[in-house]
């Protein structure tokens, strides 16, 4: 149980760290072809 919490926290930390990069990546591709980006996600 404690291990799962630590793992979830680590994953959340990674997600929050990568979110700006991911959003800029999505924006960059969104302007070109939105449906392709959403199929990736």
Walk me through this protein's architecture:
The N and C termini lie far apart (29 Å). The radius of gyration is 14 Å and the shape is elongated. By secondary structure, it is an all-alpha fold. The relative contact order is 0.10.
Overall outline: elongated
Order of helices and strands: HH
Helix content: over 70%
Count of helical regions: 2
Q: Assembly type of the shown chains?
A: single chain
Q: Describe the main β-sheet briefly.
A: none
Please write out the topology:
Blueprint (H helix, E strand, L loop, with lengths): L1 H29 L3 H7 L1
Which labels suit this protein?
41 residues; mainly alpha; elongated
Brief overview:
By secondary structure, this protein is mainly α.
């Amino acid at each position: 149980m404690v291990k799962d919490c630590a793992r979830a926290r680590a994953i959340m930390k990674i997600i929050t760290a990568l979110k700006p990069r991911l959003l800029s990546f999505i924006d960059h591709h969104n302007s070109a072809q939105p449906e392709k980006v959403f199929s990736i996600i």
